[in-house]
TrEMBL record:
Family the entry assigns: Belongs to the UPF0309 family.
PROSITE patterns listed in its UniProt record: SIS
Ranges for domain SIS: 36-221
Official protein name in the record: UPF0309 protein KEF29_30440
Organism from which the protein derives: Streptomyces tuirus
InterPro entries found in the cross-reference section: RpiR-like_SIS, SIS_dom, SIS_dom_sf, SIS_GmhA/DiaA_subfam, UPF0309
Amino acid sequence: MSDRAPAGQFLDAAIGLLQRVRDEEADSIAAAGTLLADTVAEGGRLFAFGAGHSSLAAQDLVYRAGGLALMNLLAVPGVVGVDVMPAPLGSALERVDGLASAVLDSSPLRAGDALLIISLSGRNALPVEMALHARALGVKVIGVTSVAYASETKSRHASGTYLKDHCDLVLDSKIAVGDAELTLATVPAPFAPASTVVTSALLQAVMATTAATLADRGIEPPLLRSGNVDGGHDWNARVMERYADRIFYRH
């Protein structure tokens, strides 16, 4: 490491990753935004899923000021965040065969919908099975992952495959295996993860593309406004009423 303070080094690392995503994933971001715009225009519904800390980026898309009102969280009990006790149970559930299929079969997802699956490693049974089963249902799948894991780790799915192998589109977050940007001689392990920052930014770039693409087609994007600005709640109520059949976080 350089002589710069760790805070500055971390921010530089995050900025570098964001620049790589901007430059190297531009075509994939455009394609993902177009896929979601197509889904909205054709009457489909939008869903996002992530397990553990990958769920943070999924949750950031749902009921979000400035975001698409149609984005719904596909929740799997016990793996959405770190509120489950004990916390390692969530990690264990990601490796359980059959869980994703059971969740999807009990969910409102149907043919013509789109599902964002966020998994940094893409190696566990849950995201792999979810992508496989969702596509079998006729759902379009966008995978958000670090492609590097597929060449540096072993899959935990029976097929030996990864999330990236079962998607209509893949967005590569560029995060290094281990998700830690800094090292110090005085610290025994790498530290300072950047996956949440980068993945959230990557997904918001997709959402921006979706909104602009819809507008270019003469379709008003179903966007939410902040409830903390005057008129925000009334605006949101109108949007939610118009799209009530495609919004599931109100029921």
